[in-house]
Specification:
The structure is a single chain. This protein is of the alpha/beta class. 36% of the residues lie in helices and 13% in strands. The protein has a seven-stranded mixed beta sheet, sandwiched between helices. The chain has a four-stranded antiparallel beta sheet with strand order 10-12-14-13. The chain has a three-stranded antiparallel beta sheet with strand order 7-6-11, with no helix packed on it. The radius of gyration is 22 Å and the shape is globular. The protein starts with 30 loop residues before the first helix and ends with a helix. Bound molecules: pyridoxal-5'-phosphate (PLP). Residues 75-77, 101-102, 104-105, 147, 173, 175-176, 197, 199, 210 line the site of pyridoxal-5'-phosphate.
């Protein structure tokens, strides 16, 4: 018998509302955050220049990852900007990026007048394919940004080797991969610099914020100056100040720092809970035809920001898009929009919408055709993927209901297909 889909007016497979990151039921805020925020308020200084919370957060974050330096800032996008700015690139230099990520990975490259060069992805993980990265290196390439998408670490051994051989800087974007592991090394401890977002949806959050870590003192110093108008505060008096280079105000406030500091004590537990429940779902989906759980390579530990479900259109008898819509109607928080198009099909690139009508630096230096076909694996993978929002507060019952929904939608379309 074919069960009636919620999409067609049938009963929903997921009856209760699942916790989401937009409400306290889906976040981990508690007395720890409250007391540190109060402490910051009572200190009377809410700027990091004069306060203690942001400094403590930086020190404890660096220590937790085992990396010498950390620089907090106002967003994940800002943290990428710190990394690019630390390199002091020449206009027209190139940075290799993946086409499937948050736009915040890529915008700072353009802000520094450098050119993002898109490389294709491994079709299983949608993370950068090292062989394709190697093929897109030019004489102007300076850095590679490896995005551990959805919580799945990139093939960091291969990327690190390529970067070493070609003298490129390897930047990790860990915004979706807190405490993920590659070969028993934490994401964020492998590259020359690593960036994290503390935006509301991430594993740990202070609403808006970011942090960069690096083993290199020179990068850390330049990144820190970049958050603070390149104002060398050690010169103390305003009059003696010389602003050292073109920079930003990307400072994190003490209120945000207080929340981030409290969240840091919870992030390992958050990741462990997400991992356990996601692995439970994967086990439950073993015999559902037409769908494939997220790729889990043996040498990595995924941290499940999203649960990426692949739909094999031929086997499932339906497009991933339609499958996702049906899942959403069943009450599963599927995110079909995340994955419509690779970033290079945005007007920023296709119409060179940068500075006024100049198209700078893309028109001056760009050498890629920002058109369909640029990264075929990425385009195909996006067409066949549904992102399901994952959450540390999903219970075993929630996971069973999500599994029931996927099974219901899967069998509806495969049976409907078989009947035709
Ligand atoms: C969230 C995110 C960003 C941007 O972070 P913001 O805090 O929103 O600026 C960058 N890269 C990735 C991979 C992200 O998931």
């Amino acid at each position: 018998m074919i069960e009636q889909l919620a999409l067609d007016g049938g009963p929903r497979a997921v009856e209760e509302k699942l916790p989401t990151f937009l409400e306290s039921a889906g976040r981990s805020f508690g007395v720890e955050e409250e007391s540190l925020v109060l402490e910051a308020l009572r200190n009377g200084c809410l700027s990091r220049n004069g306060g203690t919370m942001v400094l403590r957060f930086e020190q404890e974050f660096a220590q937790a990852l085992g990396v010498p330096h950390a620089v907090a800032c106002s967003s994940g996008t800002a943290s990428i900007h710190l990394a690019i700015a630390a390199l002091n690139l020449e206009p027209g230099d190139e940075v290799i990026v993946p086409p499937i990520t948050d736009i915040g990975t890529v915008l700072p490259v353009l802000w520094q007048n450098a050119v993002p060069v898109f490389a294709d992805v491994d079709p299983r993980t949608m993370c950068l394919d090292p062989a394709d990265v190697a093929g897109r290196i030019s004489g102007r390439t300076r850095a590679v940004i490896a995005v551990h998408l959805a919580g799945q670490p990139c093939d960091m051994d291969a990327l690190a080797e390529i970067c070493k051989e070609r003298s490129l800087v390897l930047i990790e974007d860990c915004s979706q991969s807190y405490w993920a592991e590659h070969q028993r090394r934490l994401a964020g401890t492998i590259g020359d610099m690593a960036c994290f977002s503390l935006q509301q949806s991430k594993h740990m959050t202070c609403g808006e914020g970011g942090i960069l870590v690096t083993p290199r003192e020179d990068y850390a110093r330049r990144a820190r100056l970049f958050t603070d108008k390149a104002w060398p505060r050690e010169t103390k008096s305003l009059g003696s100040c010389r602003f050292l280079f073109l920079a930003q105000n990307y400072r994190m406030s003490e209120l945000a720092g207080a929340v981030a500091l409290a969240q840091l004590s919870k992030v390992r537990d958050t990741v462990a809970r997400r991992r356990a429940s996601a692995e439970r779902l994967t086990a439950l989906l073993a015999d559902v035809p037409g769908v494939t759980p997220p790729h889990a390579s043996s040498n990595t530990l995924h941290s499940y920001w999203l649960y990426m479900l692949r739909v094999n259109e031929a086997e499932a008898g339906v497009t991933a898009r339609r499958f996702g819509e049906a899942l959403t109607a069943e009450g599963v928080p599927a995110w079909v929009e995340y994955i419509i198009d690779p970033l290079y099909l945005s007007p920023i690139f296709t119409e060179s919408q940068t500075y006024g009508t100049s198209g700078y630096p893309l028109l001056e230096f760009g050498r890629q055709n920002y058109q369909r076909g640029l990264c075929p694996n990425a385009e195909a993978a996006l067409k066949s993927t549904i992102a399901i929002w994952w959450n540390e507060n999903y219970t075993e019952a929630h996971v069973h209901q999500i599994s029931d929904a996927i099974r219901k939608v899967g069998s509806h379309f495969s049976l409907a297909g078989a009947r035709q």
